[in-house]
Amino acid sequence: MVLRVVGAALLILIAFGAIDFDNVVDEWRAMYPGDPAHRDALHLCYENDLQFNRMSAKARADCYSQWVPLLRAWEQAREHGVSIW
């Protein structure tokens, strides 16, 4: 219900030009990235800290620096048939 209200309000603000649509899309893509490693990193950061704020660019950058190198290493290990566990 809340998501519908926020979504409707956002659409109205975009329609009246109060919000730049390109900025909204860029922020949305930053919060919900297409790269699997970045998606997994954000998920792990939230699982480890339920107060994690994916809307914060600094929080996302800190999260990526913590998890993405490890996730990429795990992916490379899997590609080469190496078991981590």
Question: Mind explaining what this structure looks like?
Answer:
This protein is mainly α. The protein has a domain at about 20-80. It is built from four helices and no strands.
Terminal residue distance:
42 Å
Low-pLDDT ranges: none
Tally of strands: 0
Q: What is the radius of gyration?
A: 17 Å
Kindly report the average pLDDT value.
Answer: 89
Helix content percent band? over 70%
Q: Major beta sheet, specifics?
A: none
Secondary-structure element series: HHHH
Cα shape: elongated
Fraction in beta strands: under 5%
List the SSEs and their pairings.
Blueprint: H1 2-15, H2 21-31, H3 36-48, H4 57-79
Descriptors for this entry?
mainly alpha, 85 residues, 72% helix, single chain, 4 helices
Give a quick rundown of the structure.
The chain has 85 residues and is mainly alpha-helical. It has helices at 2-15, 21-31, 36-48, 57-79.
